[in-house]
Design a protein that fits this description.
It is a single chain. This protein is mostly helical and 263 residues long. Helix content is 52%, strand content 5%. It has 12 helices and 2 strands, in the order ββαααααααααααα. The protein has helices spanning 32-41, 45-54, 73-80, 83-91, 108-115, 118-127, 142-149, 152-161, 166-169, 180-186, 190-199, 220-262; strands at residues 6-11, 21-26. The chain has a two-stranded antiparallel ribbon. Helix 1 (32-41) runs parallel beside helix 3 (73-80) and helix 3 packs antiparallel against helix 4. The N and C termini lie far apart (92 Å). This is Ankyrin.
Amino acid sequence: MLDFDWMLLFCGNAFSAQSIGMITVPLSRIEPSKRLRRAVHSNDALLVRRIVKSYPDLIHNPDHSANGLSNSSLHLAASLGHLQVCKTLVALGHEDPTPALNDNHQTALTLAASAGHTEVVLFLAENDPTSILRRDIRGKDAIMEASMGGHDTVLQILLTYVPGGAQKAVQNSDLDGNTALHYASSNGNLLVLRTLLAAGADPEKRNMWSWTAIAYSATVQAEVYLKGLVSEVEKRRRINSDADETRKGSTVRMVDEKVGVAG
């Protein structure tokens, strides 16, 4: 594969077959950083490996363009859902010793979760579960991003691998006090609402403006649905609580009976 581009020089004043003379000449070599970014964009894992092997210090290759946010090679690959490129970069040490962060302090996993790239999220979550709880400059983590985007399968993967368990993770809030449930409700993501409540999210938790997730419902349908889910969860908790009390009562009676027989 050539390491340089080629161009056509058009000679002549009129653009016609008779008046155009075509001379093929090589341009100067494309910068390795640009070639690497192009390879990531085109999902060419083999080319990515070859370039990084040739230029090891270029593996992160932050994008310093106006809107690039200093996204690294893995940030770009994860945001595009290019699984094989992600695997290649991680294998080459992209995330050693700690995950790369962009200008917004987001990880590659955060961008993949926001975009709903299930396979990439699964790979990155398995590779480094601690990155699930990494917060960006607004205090949002990957679980909140998935909830906001309505990516239920991604959310379930994150809740499966998150350190400390799902129940604890769904209680987290950003700098404004918004939880994953607030984000799901405000965007009308019904499946995500059910998943979060099943994981133990608190529907009564309020943000800095004293708004609950129900108050943030995007539509009347979402509000009714969330209220129904909350009632269902509370009903199940009461049933489980009653069942626990019944079991405890039975245990106490059995102990009393054994003591009575022994006496």
